[in-house]
Amino acid sequence: MSTTRLLVLGAVRIFEPAHGYLVRRELASWQVDSWARLNPGSIYNALRTLTNDGLLEQAVEPPTGTSSGAGRRQYRLTADGEAEFHRLTRDALWQLHPYEPDWLLAGLSFWWVLTRQEVLDALSARRSQIEARIKGLGYATADVRADRATPEHVVEHFLVHEHQLRGELTWLDEVQARVRAGEYAFAGEAGVATMTVDGLEPGTRSAPSDDA
Fold first, then answer.
1. Claim to verify: residue 132 and residue 52 sit in the same structural domain
2. What is the pLDDT of residues 172-196, one digit of tens each?
3. CATH number of the domain to which 29 belongs
4. CA gap 77, 70 in Å, rounded
């Protein structure tokens, strides 16, 4: 649920006040259904759960002359929601989740709320954790090969994981170079202004009525 919490809190934060439809539409454009296993139903459930947990506050937009006469629900982060959003963003970048790649992707989606220096420090911390894990995998691989009770092909589990980690090391070299060179915009810098959708400011985009 934590990755879901981060993605939904972050999407609401981008456009707040945000309607459920807008949150779903934005996250769908990131293809979260494929890398975070987050489908539309899960997004609406998360909105309700986060509201019940006190991380989102909900209001009903006044009716706009629709036939139903009912306003749409819209969401904002509470103070606790803002703190949780930053905590999860930091955890996604600073901590290695080796078997959960969706954590890193979710963190990258919102790294702009951190300063450029913190992002560089977080990436350096990831490098140290990966290098330590690769060393540990060497010993684990040797143990599997020496254990006659373990099928010998199981060693490939460790080898493929090692190659995946080495692939991330290559990416870390490249992304750190881009960030140091001034690419992207981070907290406190120009370019991290309010985001827009289709040229409209958050909260002004029309969307179908939904029950979330």
1. no
2. 999 999 999 999 999 999 876 445 4
3. 1.10.10.10
4. 23
